[in-house]
Predict the 3D structure of the following.
Amino acid sequence: VSLLLPTEIRVPAHLVAPLRAGIAWTRTRESVVFGLAGHTTLHDRTLLLVQKLIPLPADAYVAARYHGAKWPGAAMVPVLNEALAGPFGVIVFHGHPHEGAVSLSPDDRESAARLLPTFQLLLPERPHAFVVVGDDHAAGLVLQPGGERYGHVKRVRLLGQVIADLPTKLPATLGPREAETFHRQELLIGGLAQARVRETKVAVVGLSGGGSHVVQQLAFIGVDEIIGIDDGCAKPSHRARVIGIEARDIRHRRPKIEIMERMVRRISRTVRFTGVNQPVPTQSAIEALKEADIVVGCVDNYHARADIQELCARFLVPYVDIGLLIRPIDGGTGVTIGGNVITTVPGRSCLWCLAFLTQERLDAETKGRPRSYFEGTDGQAQVVSMNGLLASQAATEVLQLITGFAPIVDEHVIKKFDGLAGTLHDWIVQPNPACPRCRAGLAAGDLVWRAA
Amino acid sequence: MTTETHSAEIEELKAAYGKVTTAAGAPGQSLYRIAKAGLPTGCTPPNSPVLLVLQGGQPPKVYAKPGIKTSNGTVPRSTSVVQVGGEEWMQFSYNLTGDPATYTLLQLVQASLQRFAKNE
């Protein structure tokens, strides 16, 4: 059964326009773009993660009646060489430029049946796919590692400031009861968008002052599943800032994931909560993060952010990070209260190229020593109302990523919080175009181990 | 390290530990995974997968899988869980006598795993 899991193809933001341009029809034929992709397998689907696009050169096409596009096998040699070096899965993209559902033609299916087994023979460790992309839908066939039967493409996900999904079919609309519940929210985002919200899995890393607010709001927003990741238990200081906590939780030292699960259950019977009682980057937390459509990081240190950032880049998951820092001004004359809400989309920016993560900041946390020397941040000030403000904005960022309810601006904008002034301002930031971290592990997916 | 000495050292690892696999990491980075390397007597589990990360110009890094306990049942100090290539590994500190650059990969793995012989 696992061989026939549906496949989701993810395209990082910087490759979306080249993909659209590459598959645009000429006056005489269709156009083909090859994608080189990493992959991973989730519990309900396979992810093919596009790392590079290679258009078929114009002079490689041969004229052929009854074929949208035809090319000789030799034209694919450079593509296959790069795929072997990766190793990458190979995706053949072409376009059917119209609105509504698209499907592979009989000729497409014949091509897929010829090409995909060839790719599999050369690169048996990765899935390979043959995909048709329309204006708002996509469809395709996938040959999984070790498989002989073809699975289907569930959707092509184009990452950007808004996640654009090209499904094989539209999500089911809400039932009358859910429609009544979300009626007021739908007035902003629309019914179709609410159906997309209903299909979205969001991981929340860190379930204290910020994360517990985020979990509560995501439950109200009506996502499909909240994946809570935190290995902590209730302690007295949590009474002042963890939403949903009760006095008995402190007495029983109840794990925070259990408190969050109870809170979500009380808000909604349809929103699922999955708790992971381990910190990032333990394997169970990594596996849980891979399942998410969006990750919200509510952690209090840069090392955890670096891990989340790297995993989100590797598996092409948008990452919303929040952080609050209250600290005394040198000389003891007062405090500064600063915070951030930063949304990074793979292929567009990362916390490194926005200079929020730096090696100096990581070294400062451990005084330049290995990570085991990190002493924690329990001594830092935290205030529930300020955590809540940043968390609310994070939940709004999630809604924006799914639905695009707000106008999109081209600039890279982060939200800066000033707790003394009580303001949340847009800051336009310039990502480092040569950021070495941004692209290093982008769309790499799972490692492929071969005999040494 | 030349390609020849590198290949010879990988062969040495295979001769000592059996199954060794490799994967491409970040650009310029090669990963080698020993499926099962024996730990010092008394450790639980008695063996662990080991990861070697080779990056040009830098000393090789050695990682083991989290969950190792020393012979007196304690969790070794100065260890932390890190992720390498999207997988969980345990970073640990170890002392090498002499110049680490003179160690072969096999010597490096053997010497670093001796860290778990200390009950601390």
Notes: Residues 54 and 65 of chain B are 18 Å apart (CA to CA).
